Amino acid sequence: MDYKKVGRYVVLGILFFLPVTFLLFLYPATHNYQPLDIVNESVLDLQNFTSDSNEDILLTDHITVLGFLGTNPMSKNIAASNLKELVYDKFKGFKRFQIVILMPYGTEEAVKALKTEISSYEDLRFWHFVFGTTSDIKRVFFSLKNTENLEADLSSEYIFLIDKDLNQRGRLDDRTDRELEKNMPVHGLNSYNCIEVAEIKNKMSDDLRIVFTEYRQKRKGEFNSDTRRANDLNNQDEEK
After folding, report:
1. Which pLDDT score is estimated for 25?
2. Percent of the chain residues topping a pLDDT of 70
3. How far apart are CA 205 and CA 227, in angstroms?
């Protein structure tokens, strides 16, 4: 018996069947995933803002990562770089995806410098800086649900996930498995800290993928969120 030939066939068989087995395990998961919670409704849209591309940039009908970099955006280059490398580069090919950063008037030149800093001459056509008054920026921020305040310079380390219907997405219950085992009090996740690489790389990436899956299923007529949404809210109320 040619053991070398048999061994070669065994290895080839493993290499063929292992990915197939993995996909079979994944297949039911794509149909039984839990939709990402709506943590806040009726986020204000951006009608009063102007963009650096002279286009009308709106949240409606887009899946948006929304941020605030304030009056000195170059001082927030770490947050911007994390957002570029961990979110934009990964999701810029997805349909109707955009990153929108709200900036106060007067920061236009600083924004140009920041874009040069983070872009490395790459395509940023799905990343928009929009400019508005201090009061307009605050109005949008306070239409969001968050435990952190907007800084005095109109910046925030936190970014927000907004769906096509102007709903803010997040997690009504963000407890870890260990916290669940210990029956710790419920705490949610309404925003994502740009400075915390693990939070952006893991939690936000996962949550964005779930939202994209949800809208893909909606297009196919396979999605119904009414029951799930009602159950989430009822469970949260019972646990308070």
Report:
1. 45
2. 77
3. 25
Instruction: Answer for the pair 172, 39: CB distance below 8 angstroms, yes or no.
Output: yes
Residues of the chain with pLDDT under 70: 1-33, 121, 221-240
Domains and CATH numbers, the chain: 37-220 (3.40.30.10)
pLDDT in tens, 96-145: 999 999 999 999 999 999 998 888 767 888 999 999 999 999 999 999 99
What does the pLDDT read at residue 183?
86
Q: Is 146 exposed, middle or buried (0-12, 13-18, 19+ CB in 10 A)?
A: middle
3-state SS track over the chain: CCHHHHHHHHHHHHHHHHHHHHHHHHHHHHHCCCCCEEEECCCCCCCCCEECCCCCCCCCCCEEEEEEECCCHHHHHHHHHHHHHHHHHHHCCCCCEEEEEEEECCCHHHHHHHHHHHHCCCCCCCEEEEEECHHHHHHHHHCCCCCCCCCCCCECCEEEEECCCCCEEEECCCCCHHHHHCCCCCCCECCEECCCHHHHHHHHHHHHHHHHHHHHHHHHCCCCCHHHHHHHHHHHHHHC
Model confidence, pTM = 0.78
> Please, what sign has the CA dihedral across residues 191, 197, 202, 204?
positive
